[in-house]
Amino acid sequence: MAAAAGSARAPYRRVVLKLSGEALAGTQAYGIDPDVLGRIGSEVRAVSDLEVQTAIVIGGGNIFRGIAASAGGMDRATADYMGMLATVINALALQDALEKVGLQTRVLSAIEMRAIAEPYIRRRAIRHLEKGRVVIFAAGTGNPFFTTDTAGALRAVEIGADVILKATKVDGIYSADPKKDPTAERYARVSYLEVLQRGLQVMDSTAISLCMENKLPIVVFDLTVPDNIRRIVLGEPVGSLVSADA
Asked: How far apart (Å, rounded) are the C-alpha atoms in residues 3 and 226?
């Protein structure tokens, strides 16, 4: 079988894809772009066809950003809870896109809302993955003051993922914003400590520390390039790798 052969080549058995809410907006400033949803659905399907277990952690910045609202005077905890609800909206949209390409999915929410999502239970999430379902983690960690980057690292560690695939709009990790600084240096590989010491914009420090403690590698890649997710899963050198030994 072609899928089984692909699975034999794939170095990763279980992956967590970390998507920002802004990724779903595409070129729009706000909301969800149906074309982007469709493309992500097709790419996740390609990974699933390799029999690689796939979980997704989704942000909510395309709808509501808790930190921005807090800076405007709103209570931080209230603002963060509102941001968590925005991730649930994105998770449902993503679930619909994945099911349209023939995948079985489950949305697991850290905040209980049984009418639309299952409550997050670690063993249940693992069982869904073992059955070949794509699991979408919504509502972050369920706690204010933690980002969805930290939620991605936490869930990846909890379910025993082999890697976090951090989707961005650039082709890896740079010493500065390459769109603003043409002299910015691109790193193919970098250690967790270097990310923390240099203040590189990969994930927040809590997420990086959690990955470092559990030796969980992170691949930072450009989501806008078609087929990048499948290429990473097959072990091709795409994007930048964060690991213990850079």
From this structure: 20
Fold of 2-243: Carbamate kinase (3.40.1160)
pLDDT tens sequence across 49-74: 999 999 999 999 999 988 888 888 99
Q: Looking at the predicted structure, is the pLDDT value of residue 231 above 70? A: yes
Whether residue 237 contacts residue 183, with contact meaning beta carbons closer than 8 Å, is answered with: no
Residue that the structure tokens 């070129």 belong to:
27
Q: What is the 3-state secondary structure (H, E, C) of the chain?
A: CHHHHHHHHCCCCEEEEEECHHHHHCCCCCCCCHHHHHHHHHHHHHHHCCCCEEEEEECCCCCCCHHHHHHCCCCHHHHHHHHHHHHHHHHHHHHHHHHHCCCCEEEEECCCCCCCCEECCHHHHHHHHHCCCEEEEECCCCCCCCCHHHHHHHHHHHHCCCEEEEEECCCCEECCCCCCCCCCCEECEEEHHHHHHHCCCCCCHHHHHHHHHCCCCEEEEECCCCCHHHHHHCCCCCCEEEECCC
Which pair of structure tokens corresponds to residue 210?
């959690």
Whole-angstrom CA distances from 116 to 78, 109, 140, 239, 240 are 22, 9, 16, 35, 36
Rounded percentage of the chain residues whose pLDDT exceeds 70 = 96
> How many Cβ atoms from other residues are within 10 Å of residue 127's Cβ?
13
Cβ neighbours around 2 below 10 Å, total: 8
Pairing of strands 186-187, 173-174: antiparallel
